[in-house]
Q: What sequence folds into this?
């Protein structure tokens, strides 16, 4: 599996897979997998009520218990997300499934087939839709109330390496990117394409600012671009990483943009000026995922198999979480109780709870 991932993200395009079919053949030992089972696209979601949490404001994230390991996927877990009500985890995998888990217990709530290998997943702010980015350039929009695929977005050409998809915090838009070198902005309610942005290289990641006014994108040419959501105009270009950008996150106060790269570093940028604030080092391999707990704390996942917790102001590492046996591909955090969720190439999801 590690060899497949390396080939998917190879900097030299001539070393990458030429088609989604080639990826599927390698994943299935030379054979194409069977088509999705239509009946599994029907979901049955239990009613989960909000309950009290044990979040402690200002808690220093120094003490962590042994993680809870969740097994069930048959291949690499490419993406994890926590629902806005902090009740569910969604995980997407190279095994072409999406699984829903109860955050508090790790209990499996449901499992269903995607249309292809899953590269990214995202909940909308209203907590009623799950977006799924697949190999092949298809985005499935799943209505969580009915458990059905309400629409599919097909405007990206064949996507093999990346298919990031995110919702704007105000709930109006969906942004998607692809190695077809485009960013697309969709209207969430109607699933209509509003406009498309052309880029010089494939798009690895997209992220909305907390106020939904700007969109940041990262690509394999080492650059971060800042776009105005209303017009699609380019506002700024941030240069500093020496290899491709794999992950981007905004701080909740909208002042800092955090980026992670294949150059093994994390960089902090001023949203207002576009200036580089700080470079953080400490991972020994690619930085695959970053997220911000608050305006003071960064969580990162890496191909070095670790999750690191950083103090944003100083760049110092607060803690290093070890437990995965392969690359950490995705991290998410619940701001209510400081619970971290990670997905890995070791086929597992882990839940890390702060003691």
A:
């Amino acid at each position: 599996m590690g060899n497949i991932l390396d080939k998917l993200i190879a900097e030299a395009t001539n070393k990458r897979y030429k088609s989604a079919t080639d990826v599927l053949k390698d994943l299935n030992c030379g054979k194409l997998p069977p088509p999705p089972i239509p009946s599994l696209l029907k979901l049955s979601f239990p009613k989960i009520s909000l309950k009290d949490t044990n979040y402690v404001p200002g808690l220093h994230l120094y003490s962590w218990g042994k993680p809870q390991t969740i097994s069930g996927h048959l291949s690499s877990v490419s993406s994890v997300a926590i629902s806005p009500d902090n009740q569910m985890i969604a995980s997407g995998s190279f095994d072409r499934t999406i699984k829903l888990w109860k955050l508090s217990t790790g209990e499996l709530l449901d499992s269903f087939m995607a249309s292809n290998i899953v590269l990214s997943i995202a909940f909308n702010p209203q907590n009623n839709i799950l977006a799924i980015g697949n190999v092949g350039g298809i985005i499935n929009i799943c209505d969580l109330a009915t458990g059905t695929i309400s629409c599919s977005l097909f405007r990206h050409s064949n996507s093999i390496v990346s298919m990031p998809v995110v919702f704007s915090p105000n709930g109006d838009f969906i942004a998607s990117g692809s190695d077809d070198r485009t960013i697309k902005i969709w209207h969430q309610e109607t699933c209509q394409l509003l406009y498309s942005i052309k880029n010089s290289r494939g798009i690895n990641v997209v992220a909305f600012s907390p106020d939904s006014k700007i969109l940041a994108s990262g690509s394999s040419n080492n650059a971060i671009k800042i776009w105005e959501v209303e017009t699609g105009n380019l506002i700024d270009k941030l240069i500093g990483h020496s290899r491709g950008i794999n992950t981007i996150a905004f701080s909740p106060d909208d002042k800092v943009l955090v980026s992670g790269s294949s150059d093994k570093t994390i960089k902090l940028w001023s949203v207002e000026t576009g200036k580089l604030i700080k470079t953080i080092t400490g991972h020994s391999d690619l930085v695959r995922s970053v997220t911000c707990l608050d305006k003071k704390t960064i969580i990162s996942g890496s191909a070095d198999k670790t999750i690191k917790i950083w103090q944003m102001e100083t760049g110092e590492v607060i803690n290093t979480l070890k437990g995965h046996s392969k690359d950490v591909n995705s991290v998410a955090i619940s701001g209510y109780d400081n619970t971290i969720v990670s997905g890995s190439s070791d086929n597992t999801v882990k839940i890390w709870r702060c003691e």
Notes: The two ends are 33 Å apart (CA to CA).
